[in-house]
């Protein structure tokens, strides 16, 4: 009888490990968030460098924009950074960053080392702005329409495929995108 009590927790632990491994290895993991179709948060952020604010609840001069939430301490943010640099070459005035739960000094160092793809970088030191967007963890990227609706929410690292979808939205597409 005592052996059963010793084996049950071990079997439960093994079962949880198997379920967790299956979820991590699934090929059909969703990369889209649940924010599509919602309004972008009405909030003003102080910009890195100080002296001004930026808000994302409306597009830029009647155009959609991209808001990428990142942090200097985020390894996946570093991995996706070359794609953001590529996006900024074609859409420089529509690409914005939000430095999430990080210091301006660390953010500036990160961008000095990797390049700065952003027209402006907003500061979100306490993380509330990211939560207002629907952030689940950095990096995450949002495409906001000219009228302030979230058209696309990419959780995790950008891929060449999601980059092309984002470009399509920035170039005039207006339908929310649901990724496989």
Q: What is the number of helical segments per DSSP (H or I, 4+ residues)?
A: 5
Q: Into which percentage range does the β-strand content fall?
A: 15-25%
Seen as an oligomer or otherwise, the chain set is single chain
Give me the CATH fold name: Glutaredoxin
Largest sheet: 5 strands, mixed
- End-to-end Cα distance, whole Å, is 49 Å
Round the mean pLDDT to the nearest integer and report it. 84
Strand order of the largest sheet: 5-4-3-6-7
Radius of gyration: 19 Å
Helix/strand order:
HEEEHEHEHEEH
Helix share bin: 25-40%
Task: Describe the model.
- By secondary structure, this protein is α/β, with parallel strands linked by helices.
- Helix content is 38%, strand content 18%.
- It has five helices and seven strands, in the order H-E-E-E-H-E-H-E-H-E-E-H.
- The protein has helices at 2-25, 75-90, 104-114, 128-133, 160-170, and strands at residues 44-46, 53-55, 65-70, 95-100, 121-124, 140-144, 150-155.
- The strands form two sheets. Strands 5-4-3-6-7 form a five-stranded mixed sheet.
- The longest helix is centred in the N-terminal third of the chain and has 24 residues, at 2-25.
- It is globular and about 70 Å long.
- The N and C termini lie far apart (49 Å).
- 34% of the residues are buried.
Summarize the structure.
The chain is an alpha/beta fold and 180 residues long. 38% of the residues lie in helices and 18% in strands. It contains five helices and seven strands; from the N terminus they run H-E-E-E-H-E-H-E-H-E-E-H.
Properties at a glance:
single chain; alpha/beta; Glutaredoxin; about 40% helix; globular; disordered C terminus
């Amino acid at each position: 009888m005592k052996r059963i009590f010793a084996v049950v927790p071990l079997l439960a632990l093994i079962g949880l490990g198997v379920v967790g491994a299956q979820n991590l290895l699934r090929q059909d993991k969703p990369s889209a968030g649940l924010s599509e179709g919602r309004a972008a948060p009405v909030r003003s952020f102080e910009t890195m460098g100080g002296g001004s604010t930026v808000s994302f609840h409306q597009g830029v001069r009647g155009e959609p924009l991209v808001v990428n939430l990142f942090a200097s301490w985020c390894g996946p943010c570093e991995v996706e950074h070359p794609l953001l640099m590529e996006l900024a070459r074609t859409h420089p005035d529509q690409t914005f960053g939000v430095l999430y739960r990080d210091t301006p000094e660390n953010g500036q160092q990160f961008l000095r080392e990797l390049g700065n793809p952003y027209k402006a970088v907003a500061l979100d030191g306490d993380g509330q702005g990211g939560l207002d967007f629907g952030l689940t963890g950095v990096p995450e990227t949002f495409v906001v329409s000219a009228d302030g609706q979230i058209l696309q929410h990419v959780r995790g690292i950008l891929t060449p495929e999601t980059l092309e979808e984002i470009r399509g939205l920035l170039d005039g597409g207006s339908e929310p995108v649901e990724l496989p």
